[in-house]
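Lecture 7 notes: from sequence to structure.
We start with the chain below.
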Amino acid sequence: MILSSLAAALAPANLLYLLAGSVLGILIGAAPGLGPVFGLAILLSMTFSMPVEGALIFLSAVYAASVYGGSITAILLNTPGTPGSVATCFDGFALSKRGEAGRALGISTMASFIGGVVGVLALAALGPLLAQASLLIGPSEFFMLAVAGLALVALASKGNTVKGIIMSGLGLMISFVGRSVVTGERRFVFGTIYLEDGIQFVPMVIGLFALAQAMVLANQSGAIAPLKKSVSGVLTGCMDVLKNPITVIRSSVLGAVIGIVPGLGINAANFIAYVVEKNSAKDADTFGQGNVKGIIAPECANNAVTSAALIPAFGLGVPGSSTAALFLSALMIQGLQPGYAFFTSGNDLFPTIVWGMLFAQASFLVLGLLGARYFAKITQVPNSILVPFILSLSVVGSFALRGQMMDVMVMIIAGVAGYYLQKNGYPLACLILGLILGSLAEDNFCRAMRISRNSLSIFFTRPVSLILILIIAFSFAWPQIKKHLSKAKAQKVQ
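Predicted structure tokens for the same chain:
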């Protein structure tokens, strides 16, 4: 079965679908505001006449390559192509400003490839088992996962913990605008129909990062990076990834686990992996200044999510994200039903899909390495040309998703606010994660309360929830414990 499925995946038609999907995915991912959901939604109609293996291989290539593509503009322009590439901006753009854009792109490409391979292996080896295990995650666990994410980000803002908490709270407040996910009640809409759908995430991200960065560049002469005749360092970046195996393994496994849990996805994985790596590093103070681990961790994690997120979708018919829902649509269009039998039916369809996803990772790896030195030349374009280009992409990206000018207005307001917040040292990462996790936390807290009849004991009697509470408590206590131990050790030496 393995050999026959490999032969099917290597069929000339399927390889053509793979190449086309990879090229389109990179272009879509690199365009701010579009991303994998937009790409899959637009290109899904192209798969109606394809054979089932070709259709799913094509969509897999689009998905994987668009997630990787988001890191290109994140690194070069401090403008995340996808919301799942926001954390990549922090250290990726810092390297670009130092004239090491080629190295940063090499890091991103290799880390994305390895993370993607780990996700595919998780799907292949653990699909049926983990699809059943994900049923153990209930409302109380989801709520505590959201709280743990916010707590980790607050702790990561070393020296700015209070500002980090303020920004997390602001992100939560923004996420509560619109109709309640539980009761449908309108909140903070001020009589405006537009706000009933809430503050849209994509325009917010584009404004906070792309437009704010354009405002920064507009105040600077020259280019982002020093002018060079040639761009180098791509292979050095690849070697940087291989020299940090612990970061690669930790972030890839973390991304795969996050992918399996419905409701989190690449947006959360990108941030959580970055925060975990920063808290684990001895040189945490260098994060945000061009630390290679600050690129490796988020890129390994968000690309591991791409395949792992399909485990509950294929195994249970429960889409954990919008992209997984589109994959389910592709299955049903082809006359297939998700479920446990999908993994164990005895045919070679599932192994063929796995091979196709594996080749999708290799495809964007080759395209990314070949194109990195050309992509990196963007950082040498004068700011007088680059700023109007970023502004144009920002407007188009904000408008393209829903076709509403109000989304463009949100982007502009967020951009101005982001510029001044960043200028005064407020960490935008905390705001974004609060915005991502707000609805998830609120929805699952209310569900947990209904299940327990308004008793908070549900968070302490469920094993996974209790473990998360202990982890949060230990995370807040550890800096004080570490400080006390260091003081005691110093006194002992004296």
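Points to note: The first helix runs from residue 2 to 9. The two ends are 68 Å apart (CA to CA).
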